[in-house]
Design goal:
Helix content: under 10%
Strand content: 15-25%
Number of helices: 0
Distance between the termini: 19 Å
Shape: globular
Number of domains: 1
Largest sheet: 5 strands, antiparallel
Order of helices and strands: EEEEE
Radius of gyration: 13 Å
Structural class: mainly beta
């Protein structure tokens, strides 16, 4: 996971899943599986999660696992 100020979180190398800043007001967030996370058989790299490459999330939550636990 990457977190750049002003960008929102990105997951995977080359942003397999990227949520942009103010994501609830635009459709600039996107998916592009297959760089870090394996694409399920028969799935489209840009359409697996949402049916389209770009999307507008209503909300999202990001959780971290404490490696010392």
């Amino acid at each position: 996971m990457r977190d750049y100020a002003g960008w929102g979180p990105g997951f995977g190398h080359a942003n397999d899943l990227h949520i942009v800043t103010n994501a609830n007001t635009n459709t600039s967030s996107y998916t592009r599986l297959g760089n870090t996370y394996a694409l399920p058989a028969g799935g489209g790299a840009s359409t697996f999660f949402t049916g389209a490459r770009n999307f507008q999330p209503a909300e999202y939550e990001v959780f971290a696992i404490d490696p010392s636990a």
